[in-house]
Amino acid sequence: MTLASSQTPAPAAAEPTRRDFLYLATAAVGTVGAAATLWPLIDQMNPDAATEAAAGPVDIDISQIQPGQQIVVLWSARPVFIVNRPKEALDALRTPAHLALLSDPNSTAHQQPDYATNWSRSIKPEILALVGVCTHLGCIPKFWPQPSPTEPAANWPGGYFCPCHGSKYDLAGRVFVGVPAPYNLPVPPYHFPNDKTLRVGENPPGSNFDFGSVLQV
To answer: pLDDT per residue over 135-149, tens digit each?
Structure first.
């Protein structure tokens, strides 16, 4: 099974299941990957009911996420986007022309922990973790990482597009100017217990970031 497009249907709005959020969203930024090869990885990341009910930490094996790929996991009843960003995507996030498109390019609004208040909005620049809930009305934005002159919007630089009302975010989850969403996508508490594992729902040692303190999710 091979993904033929960078567009993947969003999970159904009515009564989404855990499986709805555990999927390969796309294989993008210049490459297309095989979804079937990552299904074993997705299945391993499926947290049990007790973990979900307690909103406990969720461990993700990031060693199998290829550059340009995103996976989505469920944490605390919210979809969390995990992306392996390639160098060219990271370089594009810092250009003056790109920064001019953003409403809060320096992440001054409290939508992330201190350890992710930086240009990449992450602990490791290549690995992005975002709560995938639009800060306008709570829809789930689509992962659309490939630049395009026409879609999903004119002069699209790559990032996230919310088809409900047209809000746009870049590949750091920073909101564009002139869209309904008021804030950047939130960054959840997370850290890396080891080189292959990202743990969502738990801060690094020494940090006490409370996700409930973000301005909007």
So the answer is: 999 899 999 999 999
Phi, psi of 63 (to 5 degrees): -70, -20
165 is catalytic: yes
Which residues on adjacent β-strands are paired with residue 71? 24, 82
Q: What angle do CA 102, 30, 127 make, to 5 degrees?
A: 60
pTM: 0.77
User: How does DSSP classify residue 12?
Assistant: P
Question: Omega before 152 cis (within 30°)?
Answer: yes
User: Which listed residue (110, 136, 165, 191) is catalytic?
Assistant: 165
Q: How far apart are CA 67 and CA 145, in angstroms?
A: 12
Check which CATH number belongs to the domain holding 196 and give it.
Answer: 2.102.10.10
Sort 210 into a burial class: Cβ within 10 Å, 0-12 / 13-18 / 19+.
Answer: exposed
What's the number of domains the chain is made of? Answer: 1
pLDDT cut 70: percent of the chain above it:
75
Residue 7 has pLDDT above 70, yes or no: no
- Report yes or no on 198 lying in a domain: yes
Contacts of 33 (CB under 8 A, 6+ apart): 3, 24, 27, 66, 68, 69
